[in-house]
Amino acid sequence: MGAANKVPGVSGGVVAFVAGFYEEFIYSLQKINLKAFKLFINFRFSSFWRYINGRFLALLILGMLISYFSVSKILDYLIIHYELYVWSAFFGMIIGSIYYIVKDFDDWNRRNICFIIIGTIVGISISLLEPAKENDNLFFVFFCGIVGVSGMTLPGLSGSFILILFGNYVLLLVDSVNALYDTIADLIRWDLSFTENENRIRLLKVLVVFSLGSITGLVTLSHFLGYVLKHYKNATFASIIGFITGSLGVVWPWKYKMYKKDEVGQILIDAQGNPILDNYDRYLPDFSIMSTYIAFFFILVGIGIVLWLEWYGEKTVKTKPI
Known about the structure:
It contains 15 helices and 2 strands. By secondary structure, it is mainly alpha-helical. A two-stranded antiparallel ribbon has the order 1-2. The radius of gyration is 21 Å and the shape is globular. Keywords: Membrane, Transmembrane, Transmembrane helix.
């Protein structure tokens, strides 16, 4: 989930869904409420831990953090040097996710088909929106955290891609994360010179505020999703199928990056000197070159990853002690 949430167009919620722990994830987050707070402040830590399904949440969040921060540097390299193949693998994962959800969905009435169509239209529409300019205002960064975390809780709705639309993907998921990574490395070396680096301190502040917004969004969204899953489960699953299907347009592997330009045709850059992504120009694959067939191989790899996650999730459920 941590790796998936880092990539624009890919939803960490899809991983939770396919691996079979999506509902447990949502219902566990719902337990972070007033009752849990009372148990905690009354030092009833054992009851608090059991009430919030602490072991599950702790292992999940730890795995996400390790994956998220380790993959930050790796993905930067892979997307720069092997962009087509990275997008192909994620395109395959989305296809595999659609298959996984559809094969177990058996309530194909008119209402749910409408939800699928609406979800697909919303997903496609999001992919066609134009990104805004980067904004490091802390109130806006907090809002980005609330909205960006949707990729964890809503399968098919990529929080990373929404951050691109807000203009803050590079700031929040690349620059600030790398600033934290570099700061930890400095602390290990007992090098405190970063405290005089205004840009590093600014990025660390941005990351803290973004994290607070993400936690806020995670808890509030989980309560909403818990309610709709309980009362409108099939309609919710139908909408998720639509969201995921619509997201295929975002992760289409064969595309060029289009950058914002000024009146004279010069590429505009953000405050950190990075070109500002405007959108993607998608095209059909060229079957006369070898890279196209390698890309198709990676699509199959992506599908295989999802099928493996499905198999592993089912195996875990079967072997879980009662």
